[in-house]
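Record type: ASSEMBLY
Status: queued
Input:
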Amino acid sequence: MKAPDSIDCRAAAEQLYAYLDGELTPDVEAAVRAHLEDCAPCFRLYGFEESFVAFLRARTQARQAPEHLKKRIFEQVLFGRGAADPE
Amino acid sequence: MTGAAEERRRSFESEALPHLDSVYRVALRLAGDEARADDLTQETMLRAYRSWHQYTSGSNVRAWLLTILRHTFINEYRKSKRAGPTVDIDEIESFSVFDDVQDVDPEGTFFKQIVDEEVIRAIDSLPDEFRETLVLSDVERLSYAEIADVTGVPVGTVKSRLFRARQVLQRMLYDYAVEMGYIQGVEQ
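Status: finished
Output:
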């Protein structure tokens, strides 16, 4: 997108997650940051959304592949039918 | 086993197998239950092993494995019905829950009272394309470009799907929190 020198609340809301995910180009990111410094409601919205994403990530991290599956893959993929040379 | 086969096994073991947890976590959210996730993971790793000669050493092996996982899911698993309902996201409001809670809980502390199982249930009810985008981002922390690569859509589509997926999920979890009395709902 075209890098604006300044952006309004609507544009800031559209860039919300891309900003939090560190996915914006430096100039757009700077424009969002400048807006947040000046706009208390958007600053609070961003704070709320940042907490929500952190919450979401914290609640979905723990799972690992179960041991029986690791064993199955080791035996059946690496040393089983998958071990045949590629067709 | 020939020397080449032995070498293939060794390189697959050291480069691909460390990403087994990632493949399993995404498989679990795509397939929806543990038994199907086990099978989907195994089939993915089998296909990856058979195609290992096509993988360029040093490139993004996790994204490569997740691409295979996704194709395997679409071709063989999506046909069979998942357990649980899929939400109609067009029915869900697209503005932040913040508008409703800013006066009573502006930091969203009520989310912390929601148990993990309810978060997972909400994620699982998202339509496939939104669920996979959210999982690749928030569970596996892939960049938008990597997600675009894995799912075969432009980065702009990843950005809009992730935005919508998070907002819908947030709204569902908020509605649940209101229902459970963790936070007082706003009179509409």
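Annotation: The mean pLDDT of chain A is 87.
Annotation: Residues 66 and 86 of chain A are 28 Å apart (CA to CA).
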